Amino acid sequence: MEAVKNISLTINKGEIFGIIGHSGAGKSTLLRCVNLLERPTSGTVKVGEVELTRLSSTQLQKERRRIGMIFQHFNLLSMATVRDNIAFPLELAKLPRTAVKQRVDELLKLVGLEQHADKYPAQLSGGQKQRVGIARALANNPDVLLCDEATSALDPQTTNAILSLLMDINQKLGITILLITHEMHVIRAICDRVAVIDGGEIVEMGDVLDVFLKPQHSITKDFVSQIADSFDPRELIDTRSGRLIKINYVGEITYEPLLFNAVKSTSVQFTILQGTVSRMKNTPYGQLVIEFIGDDGEIDRVLDELRAKGLEVGDLK
Ligand SMILES: Nc1ncnc2c1ncn2[C@@H]1O[C@H](COP(=O)(O)OP(=O)(O)O)[C@@H](O)[C@H]1O
Ligand SMILES: [Mg+2]
Asked: What integer is the mean pLDDT of 114-130?
């Protein structure tokens, strides 16, 4: 059986790229192919300028220091303190003792664990354990960070804190992040681009905004509905007398009084039947279902004005 197949994927330097899929879709296998913990039977893996699939095992071991990895269940050494867990990859890289200490101190500060350096993993919360995992993964200054369901074992609040830390690391250190998840809100919170994987194949890929606002594949629609309103406004079509219009918008216009301005010199009235105004990473967006009541021609002119402002407007069907 093939766990992943026909994968052709390019991650840009410095971006946060998410791969989303259901359990068993092949996410972990795909991620492990990036550092060759899993060696694909055919094809190539290139990180930066280096084709990993051509390297000897000694060369590969060295190149792997450029690729950090964190895990759902943290994979910490339970018999070692926080400090020693973080020092471990540095000792493997044969860094001198004083340099190890200095680097560990930097990393403890970066992830906010200065007060916990001498504790053991069992004395830490889940979020703190993942901070240790992140510090350890960053120890050798990698170019790439792989995250395998890094927040799936955490509560929502801790998840958000860890996601902010990852975004911070991406922005401050310029590290490229490739993460896998089965949760759409993780993608929405920090990813620039996303690929949807199902049955070991990528079924959809694009900018998070595009994929989120216009999902094409049924699997993608499932994931998007995880964070959408479960109420389907189309149920209202037969019960309302006005025109039901769907409106999408992205960017700073989200905060402008566009609807009010469009109707104010007309006799058209409107009611919001459903609405989401939120953010994707740093981009605000809105999705509304509006009932417009009034003369049809006048409503058309209102809709044209909204389109002219850059909103996507269409009848709800
Ligand atoms: N080394 C492997 N060789 C073949 N099949 C595998 C291997 N590892 C995992 N699988 C199978 O491949 C599928 C994808 O697994 P996995 O990548 O762990 O999925 P996910 O992380 O999306 O839950 C599963 O059906 C799993 O049983
Ligand atoms: Mg997995």
From this structure: 98
Task: Spell out which residues line ligand 1, taking CB within 6 angstroms.
Answer: 1, 3, 21, 23-29, 38
> Which amino acid is present at 14?
G
Q: CA 185, CA 301: separation in Å to the nearest integer?
A: 36
Phi, psi angles (nearest 5°) of residue 284: -75, 150
Q: How far is CA 9 from CA 25, 150, 176, 189, 236, in A?
A: 16, 21, 14, 22, 41
SS3 196: strand
Which run of H or of E encompasses 141?
A: none
The predicted structure's pLDDT at residue 197: 97
Enumerate domains of the chain plus CATH numbers: 16-223 (3.40.50.300), 233-315 (3.30.70.260)
Ligand 1 atom nearest residue 29's Cα: 17
- What is the SS3 assignment for 28? helix
- 236's CB contacts (< 8 A; 6+ apart) are 244, 273
Give tens-digit pLDDT for 266-296: 999 999 999 988 899 989 999 999 999 999 9
Residue given tokens 């909204």 in the structure block: 306
Best substitution site from 7, 27, 29, 181 to test ligand 1's pocket, by max atoms within 8 Å of Cβ? 29
